[in-house]
Write a structure and sequence with these properties.
The complex is a heterodimer of chains A (315) and B (321).
Chain A (H helix, E strand, L loop, with lengths): L1 H12 L2 H23 L7 H17 L7 H19 L9 H9 L3 H14 L1 H6 L2 H5 L5 H35 L24 H30 L2 H21 L10 H4 L17 H25 L5
Helix pairs in contact in A: 1-9, 2-6, 2-9, 3-4, 5-9, 5-10, 6-9, 6-10, 6-11, 9-10, 10-11, 10-13
Chain B lengths: L3 E12 L2 E12 L3 E5 L6 H8 L7 E6 L2 E2 L4 H5 L2 E4 L11 H9 L7 H11 L14 H13 L5 E5 L7 H18 L2 E6 L2 H7 L2 E6 L2 E7 H5 L7 E8 L2 H12 L4 E7 L8 E9 L2 H11 L4 E7 L3 H8 L7
The chains are: A mainly alpha (315), B alpha/beta (321).
The structure holds adenosine-5'-diphosphate (ADP) and magnesium ion.
Protein name (chain A): ABC-2 type transport system permease protein
Keywords (chain A): Membrane, Transmembrane, Transmembrane helix
GO molecular function, one term (chain A): ABC-type transporter activity
């Protein structure tokens, strides 16, 4: 297997096309850096503003009219706790640091997702287009091993891209804003209900953010890989994956009231919702989402693997 | 008799209710070059694809070195090197990188072995160049190289002479003969051109419309030469019936090929043309008997059967070439 994966890696990284795509991601990083460098940093009067905000929140919590729902109340309470923590520990809310820059860049996954889709959507079907599939499949290696090695190479490419994005943005961010502040406590904009301020460092949060981003890339890569192995056409695989992903995301966002939607793949793919923000349906946990994703991916593989290993190669 | 390395039994392929290959059975022995000969569409490529596992078998078994392909794909294919149709390689890689790539997919192919194979096919000069700069002939060589890397016991080449010039064909033939004779490799080559098969193969399996018409050694197909060789001998006589009796009494009924009536034309009296299979030695005897019986013999013509004639006979005149 090691040899097979090495072969697949060779075929990915030796092609100029791959580096053009990677170059686009690097370019977007640089554009981000230019905009971030121009941003106005810390407002000098942030302490007064934050104090005002805390007073407002305390007022609201008193709730003279009694309209506050228990859920709203606890959210408000949580925000108050964090704002107070910020004030006590002298952490300005709007300053830009290298970690914030890196986190912001992880939020722009669209381009990276497209790059992964192109690589994954092409990796099996291109062998058919080149005619090399015949030479590949008449080796003393089962088709299952070929299938796995190509899939692992695809996942490793996503990993490479994520490491490049994380490392690159920290580097660029570090050059612009310095590297200190990574051990600072992390304070999300919308804190989770049970989160205690100061338990998560900025560095740890960055790892979580990039981990969640990697998982998202793996999901879209797997869809593209499935279409590539099953359809044997790169154009079809890449187009279908983009359409499926786009429609899937739209459906996930547009049917918030139907609780069956929690089993929808794209309701579960942004794992960051378990670390900041609010999961769309009660009962959704990190473990639940991971399980849903695993079931979908296994199903995709069962179909694509069966087609790839069983069907005639007459190309 | 040398050991059979490839054993094919009842190999059948049906696609969409149509039988593309039907109940094929044959063996290929160590050190033997077997030609798979048949017109375009006869099912040669389909047969080869089944042997190397690119397509499934509707029925039948393929054994390579005693290993059933359906039971242990890896062990069977470890003994096979092949080119199926055109030798398509990775164009963005160099010849060397292509070979390293395929070498990694088999066990125990050292760098020294890759170098050896490169020398064998004569690609030393260009092996570090990208395949996209190669001519068709060079790609054929590289294709042969990738098929030989892991020292296969069986080499399968589908229409390897396509696109080669006569010199290239000659070279390929010499390669194959050497591999078969010196390394004991069993070789299967397919072609729709009889002339090429004639030069390369020890035995020829003739396919037509998905069926095996015959498997004959080239020796048998061409037959013995010299005085013992069976010729088509045509006697031009005036009386067909008595002549026929005399001739068949001598060579046997089975050896009467045809009797044609030749009507009279200006300056040429009516005559009969009788053709029999006979050896050169028998001709004077046959002639003497005819003359003794008072039959006028106007002429005797002999024709040697070419391989092409035999092939046409076998395939019932189905188009070749
Ligand atoms: N996948 C397929 N579907 C339907 N017919 C096919 C398929 N593959 C081959 N054939 C038909 O099977 C016949 C044999 O094809 P092939 O094995 O390529 O012949 P050859 O290599 O002897 O020229 C042809 O008539 C071809 O049209
Ligand atoms: Mg063919």
């Amino acid at each position: 297997m090691g040899n097979l994966i090495q072969n697949e890696q060779l075929k990915i990284y030796i092609r100029p096309r791959t580096w053009v795509l990677v170059g686009l991601v690097v370019l977007s990083l640089l554009i981000n850096a230019i905009f971030a460098a121009k941003q106005v940093d810390v407002m000098p009067d942030w302490k007064e503003k934050l104090t005002q905000q805390i007073q407002q929140e305390q007022q609201q919590l008193l709730d003279p009219s009694g309209k506050l729902s228990p859920q709203k109340r606890s959210q408000l309470q949580q925000r108050l706790t964090f704002d107070q923590y910020r004030l006590d520990h002298n952490l300005p809310p709007t300053h830009t640091t290298s970690w914030l820059f890196a986190k912001g860049f992880a939020g722009q996954l669209g381009l990276a997702a497209i790059v992964c889709i192109v690589i994954a959507g092409d990796i099996v079907s291109s062998e058919f287009a080149w005619g090399t599939i015949k030479l590949l499949l008449i080796r003393p290696v089962t088709r299952t091993k070929i299938y796995l090695s190509k899939y692992i190479a695809t996942l490793l490419f996503s990993l490479f891209l994520i490491v490049l994005m994380g490392g690159g943005s920290l580097l660029v961010g570090g050059l612009l804003f310095g590297l200190d502040g990574l051990a600072e406590p992390y304070i999300p904009n919308v804190p989770l209900e049970d989160m205690v301020p100061g338990t998560l460092s900025v560095g740890q949060d960055l790892l979580i953010t990039y981990g969640a981003a990697l998982l998202y890339l793996w999901v879209v890569s797997t869809i593209a890989y499935m279409f590539s192995a099953a359809s044997r056409s790169s154009v079809l695989a890449i187009t279908l994956t983009m359409v499926v992903t786009a429609v899937g995301e739209i459906v996930a966002k547009s049917l918030p009231s139907f609780s069956g939607m929690k089993f929808w793949l794209f309701t579960n793919t942004s794992l960051l919702q378990y670390f900041e923000g609010i999961p769309p349906f009660p009962g959704m946990t990190l473990g639940f989402s991971l399980a849903v994703i695993a079931v979908y991916l296994l199903l995709f593989h069962a179909i694509a693997w069966a087609i790839f290993t069983k069907s005639d190669v007459a190309a | 008799m040398k050991q059979a390395i490839v054993e094919i039994r009842g190999l059948t392929k049906e696609i969409g209710g149509k039988l593309i290959v039907e109940d094929l059975s044959f063996d290929v022995r160590e050190g033997e070059v077997l030609g798979l000969l048949g017109p375009n569409g006869a099912g040669k490529t389909t047969t080869i694809r089944m042997i190397v596992g690119l397509i499934s078998r509707t029925a039948g078994t393929v054994k390579i070195g005693g290993v059933d392909l359906g039971r242990d794909f890896e062990a069977a294919l470890a003994q096979v090197g092949a080119i199926v149709e055109n030798p398509e390689m990775y164009k963005f890689l160099t010849g060397w990188q292509n070979l390293v790539h395929f070498a990694r997919m088999s066990k125990g192919v050292s760098e020294a072995r890759i170098e050896e194979v490169v020398r064998l096919v004569g690609l030393e000069q260009r092996i570090k160049d990208k395949v996209k700069t190669y001519s068709l002939g060079m790609r054929q060589r590289l294709g042969l190289a990738q098929a030989l890397l892991h020292r296969p016991r069986v080499l399968i080449l589908d229409e390897p002479t396509n696109g080669l010039d006569p010199a290239g064909i000659r070279e390929l033939r010499d390669h194959l003969r050497r591999l078969a004779e010196q390394e004991g490799i069993a070789v299967i080559v397919s072609s729709h051109l009889l002339a090429e098969m004639e030069l390369m193969c020890d035995r020829i399996a003739v396919m037509q419309q998905g069926q095996l018409v015959s498997v004959t050694s080239l020796h048998e197909l061409v037959g013995p030469s010299g005085a013992e060789q069976l010729l088509d001998v045509q006697f031009e006589v005036d009386a067909a019936e008595p002549a026929r009796q005399i001739l068949t009494a001598y060579v046997g009924d089975a050896n009467l090929v045809r009797a044609v009536d030749r009507p009279s034309s200006s300056g040429h009296p009516h005559s009969e043309l009788l053709t029999v299979h006979a050896t050169r030695k028998q001709i004077p005897d046959l002639n003497a008997r005819l003359v003794q019986a008072g039959i006028a013999v106007y002429g005797i013509r002999t024709t040697v059967k070419t391989l092409e004639d035999k092939f046409l006979e076998l395939t019932g005149g189905g188009g070749i070439g």
